[in-house]
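Course assignment 3, question 2. Fill in each field.
Student: A.L.
Task: Predict the tertiary structure for the chain below.
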Amino acid sequence: MQCLLTVVSLTFLLGTSHCSLLFHRNMNLEAKMNVSEMITYWGYPSEDYEVMTEDGYILGVYRIPYGKNHTNNSAQRPVVFLQHGLLTSASSWISNLPSNSLAFLLADAGCDVWLGNSRGNTWSRRHSFLSVDSDLFWAFSFDEMATYDLPATIDFIGRKTGQKEMYYVGHSQGTTIAFIAFSTLPRLAQRIKIFFALAPVITIRYTKSPLIKVAHALRALLKVIYGKREFMRNTLFNKFIGTKLCSMKHLDSVCLSFLLLLCGCDFKNLNTSRLDIYLSQNPAGTSVQNIIHWIQDYDSGDFRAFDWGNPDLNRMHFNQSTPPLYTVADMQVPTATWNGGQDLVANPEDIKNLLPQITNLIYHKTIPYYNHLDFIWGINAPWTIYYGIIDMIRKTF
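Answer field:
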């Protein structure tokens, strides 16, 4: 938040006449687009769907059925589902140029690509009967994303494509909910051919993320500051930061510092001409309860369900006085992982603890200089990660 305040202060100090003297880049049009518009902007086909979970949340799901150079024929294509991380959205996978965005590369490689959105983010803020302005709407964490969001979305994709199996790519929290879902719901796990885990996270005992550390330090004030509902919602202010201030070359360092504040990035591996898109689309919001769950994870060092605060509430949710532990070893899905040596969120020490728990680990790679956002926005991510994923899909489809 300090970085945001810095940006605002700079605006007032410089004044409109001085700001006009700063070098402006041409704004990327995608900075003001929704996910479907971002897809079609580059000439790809886009389909939009709404998926209702068992507990009534309505999730925005997007599809790129084939690439620009493919015809819409009846041949079966590998189905690939992409699930974003904490405080991001489906736009994570299409924010770079087509030659650098995983969703576009997969589509051009002949895959049927689906982009998911977790409850509460920019594109999943509806419910069948709860108001988005109610406390009950926001009473969720990554537990519910794993228990309700993933099964509903994966089942929907299966019905729509007619394919029993699919490939799953998760980044950050997108891996967390997969580890939960695939270890506790065997029926769902059987539908995943390979789980590709980018910057996987189950515990954050050793995290160096400024966001997590600040949230932990202010945990007693978190509900006072944010209430019981939304945390870091995407607003018009995000658009202003992304499209106005971050288009000024002299403010690059401030904008980059905000990305560093969120979860870390390798500035040398980031396409700074796309900053307006990154910061217009993110943060995409989540619930305060979800952030509290991550703070609990940081405190305990354990991978367990949300602690509702007293034994009676825990019994109501889990039939026991304490929240249950999740057992990653129960997951049988073939899993390939990539982690970064400089990752502020998925610290290498936490990764060392995770890897022995993955029963069917088929591939692992540590990229020494990678930070948390390099996995979705890194300039060299296609050569470092994405082409490897495509190759594994081609060999196993």
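Instructor remarks: Residues 125 and 132 are 7 Å apart (CA to CA). Confidence is low (pLDDT under 50) at residues 1-23.
Grade: pending
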